[in-house]
Amino acid sequence: MTPVRHILYVTGTRADFGLMQSTLKRLEADPRLSVSVLVTGMHLDPAYGLTVGEIEKAGLTIAARVGIEAGTPTGALMGANVGRMLTGFVPVLQAEAPDVVLLLGDRGEMLAGAIAAIHLNIPVAHIHGGERSGTVDEPVRHAISKLSSLHLVATQDSRKRLISMGEAEADIHVVGAPGLDGLDKLPCRNRQALVADYGLDPERALGLLVYHPVLQEASAAGAHVASIVDALLAADVQVVALKPNSDAGSAGVRDRLETLASAGKLQLFTHLPRPTFVEFMAAADLMVGNSSSGIIEAATFGTPVINIGSRQNLRERNANIIDVGVDQEGIAAAIGAALAQRRYPANNVYGDGRAGERIAEVLATADLARLSAGKTNAY
């Protein structure tokens, strides 16, 4: 009998786990695979909703919880916490001895996981490599790709970029974006029921706001989100907003949003469970901010997305994206265009909602002995 392969997934935020939950459960259901989860970062912080509870609720095995230093998010704290995570991850990987470490995206916890794994001679499989974004996320994402042995990419363009970076073609698999899996099954309430449950006016436009700070623009992040909300309110759009992630500049964004929420200008949530977040994304008249969920997932519902600023620069776009700067005049014009458009065709360049089954097949059949033998660039 072929041994069951143990896959260890590293998760640090509500966002990455929400995208991966369907895939992780699919992997766990595959008789050729077993799954455990290394939990760190924002999941363990009550200020961000203590979302480790969602991992427990999903019934997945938690291999370990690795804490980081809390505090006002700054670039220095982010960098220091990568070191703390690396120190905490190594003994977990030694004890778990996974066959593959699975990582998604471009955050510091994923970089720490890749560094720990490669020094323990454990193959790394990286999801969403080869993408562009133009901020600090891009070099971190590419660094993780260079530390990875298996690449599970969302698009053909991402595959081409990794090939140009010297990654072996045979180890790059186009699987689509895991965040699209099961999206059509997640929204349970229609718009009318959703707005009624949250005390919103069904006759007014509804906007979903998700805005995260950009490291290089951290000091201005609070002012940026205030300008966005001002433009939405001026257009008589009801605003449902999520608090930002823990990156540098998030304190300014959080403070502005909390002040506006206290004044009754918007509804603010520390965290929305994935099904509820998807319901709002599907029901909203427009989505505003700079979240990758707007770039990747919202197109499945045809929701108009106003993408603001530089955080998602150079990512592949679906037809529903309206790109603007952080000036209030440009944002106001984009809001008008989005409300006039109403809905876009539900086409999505990032996949067909079957990423999980493709990822399971790659992880179950990859030649791990060859991958563990060492990695060199393909020239």
From TrEMBL:
Its EC number is 3.2.1.183. It comes from the Bacteria. Keywords: Glycosidase, Hydrolase. Residues 25-363 form the UDP-N-acetylglucosamine 2-epimerase domain. Pfam families: Epimerase_2. GO terms for molecular function: hydrolase activity, acting on glycosyl bonds. Coiled coil: none annotated. CDD domains: GTB_UDP-GlcNAc_2-Epimerase (cd03786). NCBIfam families: NeuC_NnaA. This is UDP-N-acetylglucosamine 2-epimerase (Hydrolyzing). It comes from Devosia oryziradicis. The gene is neuC.
